[in-house]
Amino acid sequence: MSRAQDGNRSFFPFGNPFRMISPKGPKITSQLLSVLQAFEATLEERLKKLIPESKDEILSLSWMTLAMQVLCESHNDIKTLITDLEMPVNDWDEKWIDVYFDISMKLLDMCNAFSSEISRMSQGHLLLQCALHNLGSSSSEQYDRACSSLDGWKQHICSENVRIEKCGSILDGLLASLDLPKVKKLAKGKVLVQAMYGVKVLTVFVCSVFAASFSRSTKNMLDLNVADVYSWPPTFKRLQNLVNEEIRVRFSCGRFAVLNELESVDSSVKELYPIIQGVVDPIKMESLPGIVGELGRSTAKLSQGLDLLTKEVDSFFHVVLTGRDALLSNLRSGATVIPSNMGGNRNAQIVN
């Protein structure tokens, strides 16, 4: 697992995540194996949903919305698995709990960063609406105002988002979390850890794609090396290769943005400028209504897509937060809570 620009890097920089499948440790019964296989089959189907029929569908707001939906479903699947395993929190190793709280906090931070960027892009919608309003007139003064609004939109969209810039360090932490903890005694724990590994791989991948897209840089891209010891890695590799390759191609071409909807708006803006800026060519003016109409449609599609993506990111935030709160509640009801001096993300240390 490595960042795309890191070149040759240790295959397992954070330890061997597949050590849990060795003959040592608890044996998984046929019943537990059946539960795990069903979970991983569902995970593979969710991965398949993210493989588009065409590369043109990659990195659209609709694809990103679907990716968030898949994350929500997969994290909810983990909650269901814990229930099906009848594995109470007091059976959890304390290290697992610490790792869970650390990961969940990083995911909440990541969601906040994504939400801030989506909100920032949505704020540019007003500038586009002002431009469209002024383009409804034929006066040069209105055209100047439209140009000013379009310039403002371009500057706004190209400005940096400090929260997105911090996603790289969060991704490093999530990448480190892929190292699976040892499971020595509990077969159910072995099943849970293996199932969670698949969901964590999916989560890190989606977060890296979002971070790369929103930062307009490949520095946040990750290439995750997953051995074919489970049923789902071949499907995951196909998905990752397809998406990461397309991101690299788009950046290498110097595209304004990797998101389809932003590119569509920018394309219309570039067509408008030669017509409405400076001296107006009567011949070119004939094409103006069609280009303005296209800008209106692409602007509406961008706004609608951002609204839907906002809802899904909020849903994922809620899934992570409620899972975290549920674990805290279970810990408090089944153990004595004393103040912790160990730091970390938990507000208390649990003593059985």
From TrEMBL:
InterPro entries in the record, alphabetically? ROH1-like (IPR008511)
**Keyword GTP-binding set for record:** no
Where found? Membrane
Does NAD count among this protein's keywords?
Answer: no
For this UniProt entry, what's an example GO CC term? membrane
Signal peptide coordinates: none
Record-annotated membrane-spanning stretches: 191-214
How does it sit in the bilayer? Single-pass membrane protein
Q: Which UniProt keywords apply?
A: Membrane, Transmembrane, Transmembrane helix
What family is this? Belongs to the ROH1 family.
Name of the protein described by the UniProt record:
Protein BPS1
